[in-house]
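Raw record, unedited: cyclic-guanylate-specific phosphodiesterase
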Amino acid sequence: MQRTLLLVDDETAILNALKRVLRRTGYQILSAESGVKALEVLQDNPDIQVVLTDYRMPGMTGGELLVEVKERFPHVMGLILSGYADFGAVTNALNSGAVHKFLIKPWNESEILDALSSSFSQSSLRMQSSEVLFGVDHLLSRGELIDQLNQWMESDIRSTALYLDVVNFKSFNDSLGYEEGDQLLAVIMEQLMLSKPNGSFLGRMNGDEFALIMPFSGSEEEIQGLIKSLLYPFDDLINIAERELHVSFNVGYGISNVDGNTSELLLRNTQVAANYFKRLEGIGFHRYQPVMNNISKEKMVLRSDLYRALERNQFSVVYQPKVCMSTGHIVGAECLLRWKHHSLGVISPAIFISLAESSRLIEPIGEWVLSKACYQSQIWKKEGLPPFLMSVNLSGRQLMSNTLPEKIKNIIEITGISPDQLQLEITETYLMQNIDNSLQLFNEIKALGVSLAIDDFGTGYSSLSYLNRLPVDSLKIDRSFIIGLPKSNEKKCLVKNIIQMSHDLDMSVVAEGVETQAQLDTLRHLKCDEIQGYFYSPPVSAEEFRILLENQPLIGKNYLYSGMSI
């Protein structure tokens, strides 16, 4: 097998010089002039085994690139080639395990060749161990999938291709370790093989991504029914290393000659569909649409700009009140992040939060938001405004850090906020991925004196038996349940049961997304504790929130105050 190497440097002269050094090695050499472009090349060339990159590059550093490569292409080995001045800057990347070796400019030719030889050997060992673990005598390669699709398409057999991406698999690797993470992947693969339709073929693409092809192209309802059957076994928890884990997927699908007139294009487009909704933090399955290609390219550009948004002071925060049902007074506020791009204007959080998650930027951004919220709470307290609970969201990436409780403690001490005036919100989807890890983390955070809330309750995998084990103070009912009130008896019954269960467990309940008087009246009848939504106020600036604090109780969306832009 020919060994394929990717060179990454923003200076064309350096790339050409390296190619001259390596031209007699027999390697197939590809190149890219930025980290963003390198990821595109890796995506289109699954045979790449080694990446040799500069460190200092605009938009995305070499260290940031290799961390991303490690997550998305685990068999690929990463090398950094940089000057002496960059040594300290790559320490974090070296410690992360994403960098196999660090080479210094000006380079020594024999050292580069030795490092590359070692890296290709390590990559081959990784691939071989993966083959033993995952039993590739039964799992097709990308090339074999393409060959099979070609046979069907040449025989005018309409076919359907699925691209399956395990949601947040990085969090499993971080909490379990790579060895047990591989065991989880083996269980996933085995279950997919057992539940796949007769006559279909399954292949492993990159890391935690799979593809399935089948000689069938029925109606949308029939295809989605097959996907539901394929994924149905994953409704149950998976036991790995005495931990119970919940696995879900983003799935993109397409039909031959409609969503791709070649086998390679069909598979690529199904991957685009899966990744499109992955970046929007969606979970489910979606058919490919051509517009997704343009949006995916725009997001690659946004990812690059996101690296500089914090230092360019492009982020801000807004606050949305939580209002007590019985008094109309503000008892809490959720702090929400906003990004105003220098040329594109306001970027939707649904887009940039997921980009920040996938590029590890969510950790410094999340710490900035927490600090900003705590400082602002102290400002209002010193001004003599009524006290309330300040809520801040924690992302899945932040929750995977072993140092998170210490970081929270430091922010509390630096800002001076009283711990009992701070609440941290955690999504139910993350919580259910690893119950044991969540329990330990929750207890460590609760020990700091802050309160905890489960956000978006009801949207993820709900195992209510675990709630009485969690040191949680509040449940937030997702707005998707509130929208149907009061007309939907099913939604009304679900909300009623959640409220009753929460009160039995001594938890308060917040209803999100309340917009109408009818919804408010229904929730009051069901004895919901607090309301959050546009009925009282959208998220507003600190100055506008101060006006709300000064003019309580609130009386609904018709409430107006001079100077307020809600």
